[in-house]
Design a protein that fits this description.
eight-stranded mixed sheet; Rossmann fold; 13 helices; about 280 residues; alpha/beta; about 15% strand
Length: about 280
C-alpha cells in the first residue's frame, strides 16, 4: 500500500476514535465514577434541555472539549444553540450579524475584544463552527460595566434604568454552597487589594452574572422551546449551584447536564454529583 494511502487511513481511524481514546482524555461519570466515551456522554445530553460545559478560559484543551461535544451533538441532528459567557447581552445584535455573515471576522474581532479580554484565537473555532453551520449563538453575560459597578458598590447602587435588563433583586445567598467557594475566591483575587473591597458586593456581582446568564437562557428558550442549548462558561458559573440553580429559582424548568474539565478542586475524587455530572481529565502537557 502506498505510504500516502496508508497515512490517510491512519488519520481517518484516529479521527473516528472516541474522545477518551483520541487524545488521552478520560471522561468520568461522577455519579458512579465510571469511565465513559464522548458518545455515551452525548447520549445522555440528548435528554437534557441545557448542557453546561465549563472552561478555564485560557486552556486550549477545554475549548477542544467544547468543539468535540458540539460536533457530536450535531451528528444527532438536534436543534442547537450555543450560549457563551464571552459575549455580553447588549452585544447580541453584533453577534447575530457575525453569525449571519453580514459582519466580517476582522470587524467582529473588535467587538469580541470589547467583550472579552482573552485571545480571540482561543474561541475562533467555536464561533466559526457555529457560523458555518448556522447554529445560533446567545450572548449570555451581563454588561461588564454593571458587573463592575455592583462589585464595587453593591447591587443597590444600580439605577432603575440600569436594572431594566437585569434579573430582579440579586442578593448574596449565604445558604448556597456556591457562596463558600466565592469566599475563597475573593481572598485569592483580592488578597493584595482587599482594602475597600467588600465580599458581599463581590458575591452580589457573581450572583448577578449567574442570574443574568440564567435569565438570557430562559428568554431564548421562550423563543425557541425545542432547541437544546450548549452553554460555555467559566467553571464556577456552570456548576449546578450556579447558573442551573438560578434557572430553577427563576421558575424556568430546564433539565441540565453539567460537564466540567478537571481542576484541582475536582481532583482526587473531590468532584461531587451535587455539582457535576461528568468530569473530563486531560493528559499532562
Amino acid at each position: 500500500m502506498p505510504k500516502t494511502i496508508a497515512l490517510f487511513f491512519v488519520i481517518l481511524c484516529t479521527l473516528s476514535l472516541p474522545l477518551s481514546a483520541h487524545a488521552g482524555q478520560t471522561i468520568t461519570r461522577v455519579g458512579d465514577r465510571q469511565a465513559v466515551t464522548l458518545q455515551q456522554l452525548c447520549a445522555k445530553a440528548e435528554a437534557a434541555d441545557l448542557v453546561m460545559i465549563g472552561e478555564v478560559h485560557d486552556a486550549v484543551q477545554h475549548h477542544d472539549l467544547h468543539l468535540a461535544v458540539i460536533r457530536e451533538l450535531r451528528t444527532r441532528k438536534l436543534p442547537l444553540a450555543i450560549g457563551v459567557e464571552v459575549m455580553q447581552s447588549d452585544n447580541q445584535k453584533e453577534l447575530d450579524a457575525f453569525m449571519a455573515g453580514t459582519m466580517s471576522e476582522a470587524d467582529f474581532r473588535q467587538v469580541f475584544a470589547r467583550n472579552w479580554s482573552y485571545d480571540w484565537r482561543l474561541y475562533r473555532d467555536i464561533f466559526m463552527l457555529a457560523r458555518e453551520n448556522k447554529i445560533p449563538m446567545i450572548a449570555l453575560n451581563v454588561p461588564k460595566k454593571l458587573v463592575i459597578k455592583v462589585s464595587r458598590q453593591g447591587y443597590a447602587s444600580l439605577t432603575p434604568e440600569e436594572r431594566t435588563t437585569l434579573p430582579e433583586g440579586t442578593t448574596c445567598d449565604i445558604n448556597n454552597p456556591h457562596t463558600e467557594f466565592l469566599k475563597q475566591s475573593f481572598g485569592e483575587v483580592f488578597k493584595r487589594v482587599t482594602k475597600g473591597r467588600i465580599f458581599e458586593y463581590f458575591c452580589e456581582a457573581q450572583t448577578l452574572r449567574n442570574s443574568g446568564m440564567a435569565m438570557n437562557i430562559s428568554q431564548y428558550v421562550k423563543t425557541a422551546p425545542k432547541t437544546k442549548i450548549v452553554a460555555l462558561t467559566g467553571i464556577w458559573h456552570g456548576v449546578k449551584n450556579a447558573v442551573p440553580e438560578q434557572l430553577a429559582r427563576s421558575g424556568t424548568k430546564l433539565s441540565s447536564l453539567v460537564v466540567m474539565p478537571e481542576i484541582k478542586e475536582f481532583s482526587a475524587g473531590k468532584a461531587s454529583p451535587d455539582a457535576i455530572d461528568y468530569l473530563v481529565s486531560f493528559p499532562s502537557p
